[in-house]
Structures are given as C-alpha cells and as structure tokens.
Amino acid sequence: MQPRKRHVLLWLLFCSGMAEALEPISTTIAVGMAAALTGILVKNRNIFYRFHECCRPEWISFNETRLKTDLESKLFGQHIASRIILKAVNGFMYNDNPKKPLVLSLHGWTGTGKTFVTKLIADSIYAEGMQSSFVHVFTSTLHFPHSEHIATYKSQLQQSVRGKVINCERSMFIFDEMDKMHPGLIDSINHYLDYHVKLDGVSYRKSIFIFLSNTGGDGIIQTALDFWRKGRDRKEIELQDLETTLSQSVFNDNKSGFFRTSLIDKNLVDFFVPFLPLEYRHVVQCALAEMRAKRLKPNHDVADKVARDLVYFPKSERVFSVKGCKTIESKLDFYM
Ligand SMILES: Nc1ncnc2c1ncn2[C@@H]1O[C@H](COP(=O)(O)OP(=O)(O)OP(=O)(O)O)[C@@H](O)[C@H]1O
Ligand SMILES: [Mg+2]
User: Fold this and answer.
1) pLDDT of residue 238
2) Is 112 annotated as a binding residue?
3) Does the keyword NADP apply (predicted)?
C-alpha cells in the first residue's frame, strides 16, 4: 500500500472513531482472534492519537490558566481586549451546549496585537496551536483578491467552512483583513454563525470565528488620545467609551467586509473587541519580550534604542507608535 493511502486509512480507522465502532463487535464475538485484533487496534490507536493530531480531547482541550497567564504576561497595553477575550472564550469553552458558535470581531490600529491574540487563543485550545489542522486562516488579499470572482469565492468559502466543521466541530476560523474583504462575501457563511441546532446535518455551534480588521481604529485612537490629553490613566478607558465609535465605523465603512452584512444586521457578532494604540512603554515591553523569545538576556538599553527608533503620532505629542509593535522583531536583529 502507498504511504499516503496507508496514512489516510490509519486516520479513518483511528481518528474518525472507526476503531471504537469495532469494539462492541469484539465483545459479542467471543473469538480470541477478534479480541486480539481489537487489542492491537486499541493499542495502536492510542499510539496513533499520541503522534497524530485528531479532533479529540487529547489534542483539543481548553487550558484556562494558560490563556489567562498568556494574556496577563504577554499581551501589553490591552486591558479591555484581554478582559473580554478571557471572559468570552472561558464562557464558550466551558459550555457543553452552546447555542451558537463564538464570534469575535477584533478592531484596532496596526501592530497592536490582534493577530497575536488569535495565536494565544489557539495555543490555549489546540495542542498544536496555530499549526493545528483545525485552525484555519483566511486572508482577504490572499484568498479573495479579485472582486469579480466574488460569486465563486462565496461558494468556495461556504463549502470550505462546512467541510472543516464536518471534519471537526471544534474548529477555529480566523478572517484577517476584514476591512479589505469584498462587502457581502462573509454573508455566504452568516447562517453558520446564527442560532441553529444543525444546518444540513452539520452543527457549527462549537466552532469559533474571529474577524480581524483595522476598521474603527481611528475612533479608538481618538478616545485613547483624549484620555491621554486629560492626563487620565489609560486603564480607566472602558469598553463603553469605545462602543459607540466602534459600532458606527463598523456599520458605516462602506469599503469594509462588514458593510451591510447580516453579520452586523442580525447581531451575529458576540463581542466587538477594541485594541488600543501602543505607547512607547509598551514598545519597550515588546522589545524585551522579543529578546526573551529569542533566548537573549533582556537588555533595557537596547529595548530603549529600539523603541526610540520607531515613529510616534500625533506629530506634536508623539504618543502612539505608528506601527505598534510590528517591526520590533526585525529591528532587534539590527541592534543586538
Ligand atoms: N499588545 C501587544 N502585546 C505584546 N506584543 C504585541 C502587541 N501588539 C503587537 N505585538 C507584537 O507585534 C507583533 C505584530 O502584532 P500583530 O500581528 O498582532 O498586529 P496586528 O494588530 O494584527 O496588526 P495588523 O492590523 O497590521 O494585522 C506580534 O507578533 C507581537 O509580537
Ligand atoms: Mg494582524
């Protein structure tokens, strides 16, 4: 048998639960051969589970402590996002019978940690993190670049999401660059995000959908700047301070993938999560974290140099980093 075919057969046998289906048979047929075969299957299955990712608790199980610790220690300057995400993911993952999939929409300026947070969420649920075959990323400019092909993209996206959820109900879908997505495309999957027990025999209720965009970023910056100008602590900013500006931009941005979608009209998004622009001190924290990630001794002088090298806005006050923490990694290589 060809290695690929053998692999698929093993997957079907062990991952899809066919091995379990064989077990009751072995109990009714009191034949030593069957028992021996079952024994071999169970033993091999256990070995197989350990080495090959399956849609099973061995590979998918939520680690609340890990998410909490990661959000507290690795995500800088995002007290609102951190709090909402922890609550939302906890509530969803501990609910054995959710009524709908979890839908999060993350908004904010570039380099503020939106993609980074999706990694932290994936790490807390999937043993393989972002490398998991149950985590799927769709990037607008990569997967749906041509607006004239929207009809094809719609049916492809629908089929793709359906197939992936049939394969594993605990799937995670990340839609990056929603602000560059053709308005209407996301409507092709809006039924999946709604309150349905099953659609064509498929239940989407245990999956997670995360949308990422810069939509609403300007309003968030304005609020953060107002607080800063009044000398108020950034941590005093509450979700309510940002909700109006956020929902207005999400509703009214006629170029974004949210525009006039059922996603918004039908309130299918469970949480809109604002990401604040990052200040100098957060950039320093990012530089130090990056040194640790590279197993280098954290050096505050170098972190300061890296942070000073970035551009800050508005021009007069230079409060927020134009690129957030985005270019820190490459800058460090230059300074260390
Ligand atoms: N708030 C943060 N705390 C810690 N690290 C951060 C934060 N924001 C950004 N970073 C670092 O900067 C890198 C780039 O950030 P990320 O890709 O998450 O930005 P983004 O918000 O998704 O930006 P964009 O809108 O351009 O996609 C991350 O991999 C992470 O290392
Ligand atoms: Mg991103």
Assistant:
1) 96
2) yes
3) no
Per-domain residue ranges of the chain: 3-51, 64-275, 280-335
| The pLDDT of residue 23 is above 60 | no
* pLDDT for res 221: 97
Cα 163 from Cα 295, distance rounded (Å)? 40
Question: For residue 12, is pLDDT > 80?
Answer: no
For residue 325, the ligand 1 atom closest to its alpha carbon is 12
Give the list of residues 6+ apart from residue 76 with CB closer than 8 angstroms, or none.
113, 278, 282, 285, 286, 289, 325
Residue 228 or 44, more confident:
228
Choose one of 107, 325, 327 to mutate for the ligand 1 pocket test, by most ligand atoms within 8 angstroms of C-beta: 325
108 is an annotated ligand-binding site residue: yes
Closest ligand to Cα 77 = 1
Q: Which residues line ligand 1 (CB under 6 A)?
A: 74-78, 110-116, 214, 278, 286, 324-326
Q: Give the tens place of pLDDT for each residue, 247-306.
A: 888 888 777 888 778 788 888 999 999 999 999 999 999 999 999 999 999 999 999 999
Long-range Cβ contact pairs of 4-13 (< 8 A, separation 24 or more) = 10/48, 10/52, 11/52, 11/54, 13/41, 13/45
The Cα 209–Cα 181 span in angstroms is 15
Please provide the average confidence, as pLDDT, over all residues in the chain: 89
Q: Is 22's pLDDT higher than 50?
A: no
Topology classification of domain 64-275: Rossmann fold (3.40.50)
Q: What is the pLDDT of residue 90?
A: 98
List the end-to-end C-alpha distance of the chain, in Å, as a whole number.
Answer: 52
Chain centre distance of CA 5: 32
215 backbone dihedrals φ, ψ, rounded to 5°:
-55, 130
